[in-house]
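#struct-help
A.M.: can someone run this one for me? Single chain, 105 residues.
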Amino acid sequence: MTKLASSILEMIRMMIIMMIFVTVLGNIEHQILKNWVPWEGLYFLFLFVGNVLWFLVFYRNRLQFSGWYRSAATQHKLSRNTTRIVMALGMILIGAPIMITWFMV
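D.P.: on it. Structure tokens below:
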């Protein structure tokens, strides 16, 4: 039962941290990007997915080691190549509004 309780607490912790991380970072990026491109509602989706990918890397490489849930199977960092690929995909998605506006016009 303690394993179940600790995993539920860890999921709640992860969701709260992700909501704060994605909201704060998304608002900062929105304030910066709306000065460069005419803003459309669909662009929030790109920022959201890019920030969730960045959070995935941050959580798997840093935050999972300080949580409540401990398991030998899940206590590994992402590999260097996986980290680079996911971070690059996040950067591309966050930069997508600029690319769409500048190159599709």
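A.M.: thanks! The chain has one domain: 2-103.
D.P.: also worth noting: The longest helix spans residues 2-33.
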